[in-house]
Amino acid sequence: MSEVQKKRRFGFFRWIVLGIIFLGVYAAWFGPSVLKPVSPAVILSPEPIWPGLKILGVYFSNTMLATLIADVILIALAIKTSRFLKAGNLVPSGVYNVFEALFEFLWSSVEGATGKWAKRVIPLVATIFFLIFTANMIKLIPGFESIGYLEQPPKGAAFAPVPLFHLGSATVYALDPAHEVVYETDAVEGGHAAEAGDGHHELCTACQVIPFLRGSATDLNFTIALAVIAVFMTQVYGVMALGPGYFTKFFQLGKLVNGGIFGLIDFGVGFLELILEFAKILSFSFRLFGNIFAGALLLSIVGALIPVVIPPGLYLFEIFFGAIQAYVFYLLATMFISMAVVSHAGGDHGEAHS
Amino acid sequence: MNDPVAFVTGLKLLGAGLAMLGAIGAGVGVGIAASGGVQAMGRNPDAAPIIQTNMILGMAFAEAVAIYALAVALIIIFAAG
To answer: Does residue A200 lie within any of the structural domains?
Structure first.
């Protein structure tokens, strides 16, 4: 291996990498101020993709758009895979290979956990895994969370926009970190009447970028929706496996009646299990949201402070964490479902429905 | 103290930072889980897949505490008052 590398001492790609690094250093510290990185505005809630755009009375947010894109990618890949299966080729190739490897990986762990229920459980948990994985991966594409329309933040510090070039009738602006404008809520009202785009939107003097696309999991609505689905479906699988007797896990009336003082304790423990189900929603959603939001925050803040060598490493880290978080969500959902489908009170009504 | 708004903002940020102290325990917990997992895998490499799965599961539970702390910190900064 080392022999081969010694021959190609003046490789081609390393010069490209070196050139990119030098360009980055120039842009970050020596070049015109437009090229310098802008310290990010931290916004917790997702923003509408266009000011005031509502669909069915709900703001159509940039995270929804990103989730839709992830959905479209997944559906396209699934259609391609199913076409490949229907074509009847015996030799796997391309996208099908990736899906087969991933599916076998997921299938082995689902089957290990839930046994004979694996065939019914895997559509749910694998869909959750693929959706979170795809959403976490496409959010790392450059342009996410950085291209958008300009808006005046309610208060604080922001940057003045500088026109870059014209795209058709619209003007494209970049934020100029050299012109920082600090103001209170009422100090600067509105903005100049300079027109941007179709002329409906007044240009602000101190702006923050509201991105068109933002990672799905940086929106708490996305993660809570997935968590509610996972926990609700856990109960559904439990009822499917054990019948109505599943709920004796939460309300242990039988033990209360003929268990004496320990029956009372068991009854209380059952209530704790009920609370635990709601705690699952909280921990599912905040785990995914916290990891991905903190990752996005870390990327933008470190990218503003040290824009040259560190961010690629952090991007690698984010790829790893996006995959791990999707896997953890999937694994926990599988484990909770496997705990729900085995009988709590011992043998009797667990086998009856098999 | 002359500017009450700045004072409250500073206290909010301080509170958020203090809330993140909860990450200490989670860090220790994740470290213990990883250490135990790696030791177990070293002793019994054949059981590595099972150990790895359970290790990641335990890490996820330990990490949840840090995530709660993060949620509290974010709420203090962005949502509260």
So the answer is: no
